[in-house]
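Journal club prep, notes for RB
We'll compare a predicted complex against what the paper describes. Inputs for the flavin-adenine dinucleotide case:
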Amino acid sequence: MTITIGGAVAGCSIESMSYKFGGFHDNCLEYEVVTAKGDVLKCTPDNENQLMFHMMHGTFGTLGIITLLKFRLITAKPFVKVTYEKYKSLEEYKIAIWVHYRSKDIDFMDGIIHSPVEYVLSAGNFVDKAPYTHSYDWTRIYFLSTAKRGEDYLKTSDYFFRYNKGVTNVHPKSFICRLLFGRFINSNSTLKMAKTFRKVIPSTIIPITVDTFIPFSKMEEFMEWYEKEVNHFPLWCVPYRIVHKYEWLSDEFLSKVNDELFLDIALYGMRRKDAEHYYKSIEKKLAELGAIKTLISTNLYSEKEFWKIWNKKNYNLVKQKTDPDNIFGGLYEKTCST
Ligand SMILES: Cc1cc2nc3c(=O)[nH]c(=O)nc-3n(C[C@H](O)[C@H](O)[C@H](O)COP(=O)(O)OP(=O)(O)OC[C@H]3O[C@@H](n4cnc5c(N)ncnc54)[C@H](O)[C@@H]3O)c2cc1C
């Protein structure tokens, strides 16, 4: 797997413990940041560099480079037991998510929305023993198993790598190709190929990828719109607790945030002719709902729209200190015009 801990902060990583702990950055205690001038700064949530500490998240290396970080750990066990709770409606799904969210009775929670009438919530717990284990590193496809199985046991390391061939956009696609090459094709090799052939791959064959964060109370409205306007399934669903009012979001955006829980609804691998139309209309709907997306794929915001969501004042305050000559480039330029 290619994700580094610095990249996880800079690029907004979350996972199935996010319903309790927020994003990876929410569990960090200290960053060492190298500025464009080569200064090495220690940033914590309460020292003189506290704004820099908070702003490192999601700014894609445009404020400085994290060279060291301290983060919280929890005690793990050797196996994870996952129970697949099946629901036929969004209403039932939301109730189940809310019950787990309030009672914090499970270690991990994410899910797959296979269709508008097939919702799977994957409720995971660390366990000491397992009657059997499955891994998803060869011919098996994890997201499909969530629809077929009632429960599953994975070694803890396999649980963390369960989506390593793609979450819902799995490669290789065919069983025969997975049988022959599946052992060798994973996120590392796919990304390496994409990087190598980047210049010759036509942008029209790159599938649409969007990672949204929808306020829990706005899910019905979002899904109703989504079914009508986009209608691509499956979707990955990761409940995410807003740990505090984030400094990287604008005051205007934050003034509309009333939910403590958001759902990260991620759409991968959608092939449509008019990609720009879909990116644009999703951005527009998110703005209407007080929802947001991570900036990991194509972003078509105008500069004005962008800074209505992200916090320009805080960004510039840190930028002046760490990169006054703009050596690392600006966040808007890096994420919206490349
Ligand atoms: C196969 C795969 C699976 C994924 N699964 C998940 C998932 O389950 N959950 C999730 O939330 N996200 C997921 N992502 C998205 C991922 O979290 C982000 O893309 C993350 O930023 C990748 O980190 P990286 O180390 O690969 O960074 P890179 O892709 O190398 O860089 C990402 C950005 O961060 C900047 N950056 C990198 N390192 C640093 C640093 N040390 N200091 C400052 N800036 C830096 C880079 O300049 C760049 O702009 C996945 C991505 C991939 C490719």
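Talking point for the session: The pocket of flavin-adenine dinucleotide is lined by residues 2-4, 6-8, 10-11, 13-15, 60-61, 65-66, 163, 187, 191, 296 (CB under 6 Å).
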